[in-house]
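Researcher: I've been going back and forth with a colleague about how Ribosomal RNA small subunit methyltransferase A might be arranged in three dimensions. Neither of us has a model we trust, so I'd like an independent prediction. The organism is Gallionella capsiferriformans, in case that matters for your notes. Sequence below.
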Amino acid sequence: MSAHKAKKKFGQNFLVDQNIIADIISAIRPEADDNLVEIGPGLGALTRPLLKSLAHLHVVEIDRDIIARLEADYPQPHTKMTIHAGDALKFDLASLGAPLRIVGNLPYNISSPLLFYFAEYADRITDMHFMLQNEVVERMVADHSTPAYGRLSVMLQYRFFMEKLLDVPPDSFRPAPKVNSAIVRMIPIPADQIVVKNEKLFGEIVGTAFGQRRKTLRNTLKSFLNEAEFENLGINPQLRAENLSVDEFARIAAYVDDRVVA
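Model: Here is an independent structure prediction for Ribosomal RNA small subunit methyltransferase A. You can compare it with whatever you and your colleague have in mind.
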């Protein structure tokens, strides 16, 4: 089969650095009986070493040319691999059962939508390991009151323990992307430890606060809290969204939720 040409519309950059690949597999630590799905297997940089440890692997791939390559190597149905053709953003992860482990070199152009989509299945997931643009990983793990901290940070940190594991330079890929990459580990926080109860309201408050991040909370959250209520919560309305911790956003959401219920 002829060499595959990376397609811009799918954000394809194929990992080729064998040392980085070994480091990623070491971080994932696949076990034979793991229920594991790889998002976007591409040319198999992670797929092949994963299969050395796993009894069976699920893969989700949208590129028809890559699907044809996979099916040539693993005619379906296959004892070692199940190929799910289609868009990962529309794939029902619940169909794979639980607990589930997810790995992937995510397309950088849709990485945030994918992260939020996978978060919807958090209660079924053991852990996730992703290759992402380094800038996105830095935002995911950022502390409050730092430049990288934003809506993505808050909306993932309330639901996951996250850790940046290693940097991956552009020359680790073919073709080489114009940005640095990184590996991140995401582990769902147990349900009884999640500080957010009304997730929809929490998301609205966080989104509103960061929608105009240069403005103070007094202005951005005036539809949720008045001056006295900020004082009751012990939160300075002169602060900006980036200054609030995940717990403080959760306190605001709980306060507003209780007030609505009352």
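Researcher: What would you highlight for our discussion?
Model: I'd start with this: Residues 8-193 form a domain with the Rossmann fold fold (CATH 3.40.50.150). After that, consider the following. The chain has a mean pLDDT of 94.
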